[in-house]
Amino acid sequence: MAAQLEPSIILYDLACTKHVSFSPVVWRIRLMLNYKNIPYKTIFLEFPDIEPTLKNLGLVPGEASKYTVPAIQHVPTNTYIMDSLPIAQFLESTYPDPPLPLTSDLGREIETKGRGVLGKAIYSSVMPREVRILSPRSQEYFRRTREAALGHRLEDLLDGDNEERVWDGVSDAMGAIGELMRTHKADGPFVLGARPSYTDFFIAGSLQSIRVVDEGVFQRMIKYPGYGEIYEACLPYLERKD
């Protein structure tokens, strides 16, 4: 058996009881690491441990930010970086082969619209189910912080027809975003055609996160055109989950 390469990257990820990655923002970086074949090691953190751990590493959030994963240590230079976009920019400049386009006009349009539309569906369907795959410590933290922002119980999002009304409200927009994903389908399975871009990892990471939390919500998402095709095209880079 070939010796395992020493990790170039230490990836700080969010822990869950399934012992696999499930954070959509961390998945964007994990997909990038897998695509570029960069050796890495994962350290999973519980929700209450993120801030003290990253603070001890010397990381400082921006003015409008907070301590959050993903965070990485670049082992060769002992560089620490937090947040998915700065990490992606660092990885692309440090490991340019194979290249991964980080921005495009089409990609920006998909990501901007996706945050607004997918955010509503994830908010209503995924967040109240996410608490079920957390450890007791993280459950308490997650429920306390989210319910304070909501002003009601997480489960209220699923009561009655609340969830269905949200999906009805975003359905047309989700279909339209899916069609944008297929703009270059004649050239290949990815958003820009034959090769992946960061936008593909934005999409596939979100879908993988949903799938870990709840298979039913994932199946509902990929019924829209475009979503399933992008997810399937990214499957080789979704294989490593820990």
TrEMBL record:
One Pfam family this sequence matches: GST_C_7
InterPro entries assigned to the protein according to its UniProt record, in alphabetical order: Glutathione-S-Trfase_C_sf, Glutathione_S-Trfase_N, GST_UstS-like_C, Thioredoxin-like_sf
Domain GST N-terminal as annotated: residue spans: 13-99
Top-level taxonomic group: Eukaryota
Protein name: GST N-terminal domain-containing protein
Provenance organism: Penicillium polonicum
